[in-house]
Structures are given as C-alpha cells and as structure tokens.
Amino acid sequence: MASSQITLSEALPSDFETFPTISHLAFSPTQINQLMFPAGLDASDISRNASKYKDRATNGCSKFVKAVSADGEIVGFSEWLYCTEEKGMTKKPNDIPDWGPNANSELCDLFFGGLHKARIAAMEGKRCLVLQILAIHPSHQGKGIGTRLLQEGLRQADELGLPVWVEASEKGRPLYRKFGFNDFKTIEIDLAEWGGEGIDKHVCMLREVHIES
After folding, report:
1. What's the burial of 94, exposed, middle or buried (CB within 10 Å: 0-12/13-18/19+)?
2. What is the pTM for the complete model shown?
3. Superfamily of chain region 3-207
C-alpha cells in the first residue's frame, strides 16, 4: 500500500488503545527494547500506556496524529510535544515514570532519563516542537508513512516558526538528516552491562527554524 492511500488525521480518544501495540511492535526488534521490556507487552501494559497517551493529549501539550489505511486500519502514529508558550520547554521534577512491573526499570531510567536530560539541557526555556514518538506497524514500514507523519509535524513547526527536537535511533537517523535535522548529542549505553551485546547509540537531533528561501 502506497503512502498516498494513507489518511492522516488527529487521533481520537478511542484510538489510544491501539497505539501501545503499534509502538511495541515497531520498536521491539531493537536489542535495547528487548532488554528494557523482556516480557513483552501484556494487557496491563497496554492499558497503562494508553492512559499515559490520553493524559498527555488531554492535560499536557501533546498532539497525536494517526495514519489510517484505506480499509480503516490504524497503521502508525506520531506524538508531538508543543512547547509553544512563552516559558518554552519546562522541566517536570514530579513526573515519575511508571514503566510497569514487567520492565527493567533501572535500564529504562538510564535510557529514557539520559535522553530526557539531554533534551532539557539543550532546550529548557526555549519554544519548540518535540517529536516524541514516530511508530509504524512493521507490516507497513518502508512505504513512506513515517515520512508523511514527519512532514506533517514539520509543516506545523514551520508555520509556527519553531525548531524541532528528536531523539533518533541509528536506523531512523538518515530520515531526520534528510529533513534538515543535525546531530546534537549521542547517548551511548554499553548493552553488555545489561546482558546484551554491543553499544546502543541514540542521537539527539535538532532542526533549526526553517525559513523558506
């Protein structure tokens, strides 16, 4: 299915129950995710993560965009954090993560915490958009759907005249480079210390304000 047959629209409250499974399937092949969530995803994980998404959409500054196939199936989604108020991006010291009982919480704290610290160090107090999640169901990857979801968010950023921040895997990095993101900082984790192999690298990337020439 070509990306032209995909419709993008703002997510509805009823869509959030679908997102955790798509996200899990999209990222579970990576070694870092297998080590953080060795038991996979169960019903309690889906419910908890769906509630997090709903809360961020309702009470936070996140906007979710879904990609829907011609037959009505949600095949991917993106989450964009809009730090558009005068105070810009703010630190939330009371936001304690709940990774669930099946997760390796220590590794989750190290991985996600490291990325978040880099984000705050670079962008605290600045108005910006943050691409928090871009997830495509494995059976629909490689069809340009992720590119369309990315372009939609970048269009919004350009209309607002704001930079965009993303934390990318090595696999996803070339796509972001193509759309004007530059490497800001690389976060590395020695997976051997957690029962894995090699080094996991995630790159914090920044796309400066884009001005049409």
Report:
1. exposed
2. 0.92
3. Gcn5-related N-acetyltransferase (GNAT) (3.40.630.30)
